């Protein structure tokens, strides 16, 4: 039939009413006169149209004989039920329907446009395969369950999408093969059943038009809008991408279907119990707009809501409905919150607490521009939805908390991936044993026989620079104040101004000497309490008002002090640390490929790092000293690259700072232990403590019998104890000299005796100013060069 949506079908379709006509013929033989006479009269009309019995393949015939067909089907479509039942005649799975009940007609008319009766998510393959399945069940007596739920989606007069379940009655259908059909064997049938998705196979076994479909089907619709919307909501919420989607209309459409409110809008606000505040959802979901907060990121709950709303939501954890926001806002205690809703064109509003285990997690918000569209009656529909929302919100909050924990671990208490396995194993032991006895105590995490590597790039003279910038800012602030006071021409407060000028001049002289511990605090107190009140009172003086205004604008908003030289210093220090740490972190990824090892770095006045390598950290990998050699060569090259980076950027920064570089060589393996109280690794045992003592004291040490530091700008200082360490590092230095990374000259000297430490020696070599040479070399490449 040309009007069918799916043109290709195993059936040649003939719409026929022969079974109804046969039933009428039986009634015509009845002894009950009024029934018999009615059937005879109708049969007289029907027999004049033989197509009604033999089969119709032209939809135009049905339209021309609409009234007669209606009478013919009157017993199946009783007038008394026409306003209640949603029923019509159809051909299964196709888009042709006719002989509608009045309620069905009303649904179609209310849609506001001519609609195609297309089944949701139903395509040509499904149509063909399911049509063939009907034949298998009817003709071959199989019992294939192919009846998946089918739905029509039809908008109502308000544009709200309604959902209807399709039910077919096929009592008035006959199916039989044409002369050209081929009988299927059991193997062929099994092949079809095992290959549902193979359209070509279905068409091969059931060629188009090889079977006759004669009769008609009655389709009945059941309004399942609410159930379908709840099902869609579950699917939507269970989608792993839900928290990261921005499909606002999807969620709004679902809720509109449930509540039958065409302009319903959905919002959500999180609740922070610790601080009693409302917060915008952290997960990236555009549908999670907050009508309570609007553009605010967070708000105190009592300020965001009026008293009665707060009591209902937060204290009683009950649904709160505002059926008429304008009437609500007229009550004095509700004005602020009510007017906020009115500004958003909200005429009725519903707030529903999301609760899990008696804990308030957040508030679901429903808003409409219609008065009383939301009310205490339809609020009960939330009982269908809230369990799914609660589970989803709990899951989202748990995900958020896990991410926060990950950030805390990454930024504050990192457990390095190389040793994470041991922490995980111990945590697993704790979990498994505590679930049985509750007496298991966490064991300390210790790694024995590991080789330490330590290096640092330190800001040279950082303490002196910091003090100088402090003195510069104080001096410049005092001079600027003095210049303002000296321009005062008014006689008012002349004596006190002269007194303050004298005190300022004394302070300027005082800061030329080294600063005392409390000097900055005293001067700040003096300016705040003695000078600023005077300047505020002089802002009406025309000759100085602009200067005073500019002075206050130049002060730091937090400290109220001059923060210019110090700002340049702090920014320079931050940039240097960031750049050098980035190189170290990037290179560390390469270093882990040499052999897994523990790594940590610290940013203070410069960047320092610790590395520990040994079989204890990677017990599944065999350890060899060659890995240690590779890592030492890597460390030396990385320090060279960090030095070069500083040389590249130093002249572009607002404050000139130099750096010094140092590597400590320690060839005796040590043990490290994770300190639970400090959440970090430290050396374990008194013998191993010597390594930590050397680390803390060496960077400020002098060359023996001189007052010169062992570190020097532009040079890498390598501190060691034993001759074999010197031999090893000389190989690295000479190799990097050959590669034009280090300069030819090598300095050797001893370190002055430190408290409890003696016999340390130094190799010092300058980095070549060659920015293009950032290639990393392995220990094997070094050996190849030597050979």
TrEMBL record:
Q: Which domain of life is it from?
A: Bacteria
UniProt-recorded name of the protein = GAF domain-containing protein
Q: What is the lineage of its organism?
A: Bacteria, Pseudomonadati, Bacteroidota, Flavobacteriia, Flavobacteriales
């Amino acid at each position: 039939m040309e009007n069918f949506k799916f043109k290709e079908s195993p059936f040649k379709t003939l719409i026929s009413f022969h079974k109804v006509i046969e039933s009428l013929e039986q009634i015509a033989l009845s002894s009950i006169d009024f029934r018999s006479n009615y059937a005879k009269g109708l049969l007289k009309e029907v027999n004049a149209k033989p197509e009604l019995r033999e089969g119709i393949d032209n939809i135009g015939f049905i339209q021309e004989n609409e009234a007669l067909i209606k009478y013919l089907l009157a017993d199946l479509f009783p007038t008394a039920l026409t306003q209640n039942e949603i029923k019509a005649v159809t051909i299964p799975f196709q888009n042709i329907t006719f002989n509608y009940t009045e309620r069905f007609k009303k649904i179609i008319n209310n849609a506001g446009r001519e609609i195609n009766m297309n089944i949701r998510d139903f395509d040509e393959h499904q149509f063909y395969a399911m049509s063939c399945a009907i034949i298998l069940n009817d003709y071959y007596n199989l019992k294939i369950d192919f009846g998946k739920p089918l739905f029509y989606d039809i908008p109502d007069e308000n544009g709200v999408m309604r959902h209807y379940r399709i039910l077919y009655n096929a009592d008035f259908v006959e199916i039989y093969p044409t002369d050209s059909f081929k009988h299927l064997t059991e193997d062929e049938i099994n092949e079809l059943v095992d290959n549902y998705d193979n359209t070509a196979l279905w068409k091969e076994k059931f060629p188009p038009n090889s079977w006759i479909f004669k009769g008609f089907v009655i389709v009945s619709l059941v309004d399942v809008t609410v159930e379908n919307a709840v099902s869609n909501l579950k699917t939507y919420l269970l989608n792993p991408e839900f928290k990261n989607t921005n499909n606002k209309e999807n969620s709004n459409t679902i809720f509109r279907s449930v509540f039958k409110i065409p302009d319903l809008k959905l919002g959500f606000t999180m609740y922070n119990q610790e601080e009693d505040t409302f917060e915008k959802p952290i997960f990236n979901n555009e549908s999670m707009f907050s009508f309570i907060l609007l553009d605010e990121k967070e708000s105190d709950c009592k300020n965001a809501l009026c008293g009665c709303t707060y009591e209902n939501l937060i204290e009683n954890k009950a649904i709160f409905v505002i059926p008429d926001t304008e009437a609500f806002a007229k009550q004095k205690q509700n004005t602020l919150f009510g007017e906020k809703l009115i500004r958003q064109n909200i005429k009725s509003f519903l707030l529903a607490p999301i609760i899990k285990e008696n804990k308030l997690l957040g508030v679901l918000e429903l808003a409409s521009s219609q008065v009383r569209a939301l009310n205490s009656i339809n609020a009960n529909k939330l009982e269908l939805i809230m369990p799914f929302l609660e589970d989803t919100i709990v899951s989202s909050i748990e995900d958020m908390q896990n991410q926060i924990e990950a950030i805390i671990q990454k930024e504050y208490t990192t457990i390095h991936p190389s040793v994470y396995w041991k922490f995980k194993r111990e945590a697993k032991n704790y979990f498994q044993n505590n679930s049985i006895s509750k007496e298991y105590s966490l064991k300390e995490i210790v790694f024995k026989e590991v080789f330490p590597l330590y290096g640092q790039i330190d800001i040279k003279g950082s303490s002196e620079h910091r003090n100088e910038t402090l003195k510069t800012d104080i001096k410049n602030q005092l001079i600027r104040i003095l210049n303002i006071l000296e321009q005062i021409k008014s006689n008012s407060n002349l004596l006190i101004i002269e007194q303050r000028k004298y005190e300022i001049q004394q302070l300027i002289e005082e800061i030329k000497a080294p600063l005392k511990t409390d000097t900055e605090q005293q001067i700040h107190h003096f300016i705040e309490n003695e000078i600023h009140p005077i300047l505020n009172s002089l802002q009406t003086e025309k000759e100085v008002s602009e200067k005073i205004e500019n002075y206050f604008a130049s002060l730091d908003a937090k400290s109220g002090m001059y923060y210019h030289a110090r700002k340049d210093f702090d920014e320079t220090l931050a940039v240097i640390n960031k750049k050098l740490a980035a190189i170290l972190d990037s290179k560390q990824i390469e270093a882990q490929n040499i052999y897994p090892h523990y790594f940590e770095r610290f940013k203070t006045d410069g960047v320092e790092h610790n590395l520990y390598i040994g079989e204890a950290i990677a017990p599944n990998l065999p350890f060899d000293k060659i890995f240690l050699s590779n890592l030492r060569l890597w460390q030396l090259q990385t320090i060279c690259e960090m030095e070069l980076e500083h040389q590249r950027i130093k002249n572009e920064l607002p404050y000139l700072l130099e750096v010094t570089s140092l590597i400590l060589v320690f060839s005796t393996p040590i043990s490290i232990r994770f300190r639970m109280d400090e959440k970090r690794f430290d050396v374990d045992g008194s013998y191993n403590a010597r390594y930590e003592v050397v680390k803390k004291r060496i960077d400020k040490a002098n060359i023996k019998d001189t007052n010169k530091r062992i570190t020097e700008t532009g040079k890498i200082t390598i501190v060691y104890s034993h001759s074999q360490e010197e031999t090893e590092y000389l190989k690295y230095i000479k190799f990097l000299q050959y590669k034009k990374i280090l300069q030819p000259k090598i300095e050797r000297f001893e370190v002055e005796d430190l408290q409890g430490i003696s016999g340390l020696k130094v190799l010092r070599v300058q980095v070549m100013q060659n920015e293009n040479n950032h290639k990393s070399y392995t220990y094997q490449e070094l050996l190849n060069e030597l050979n």
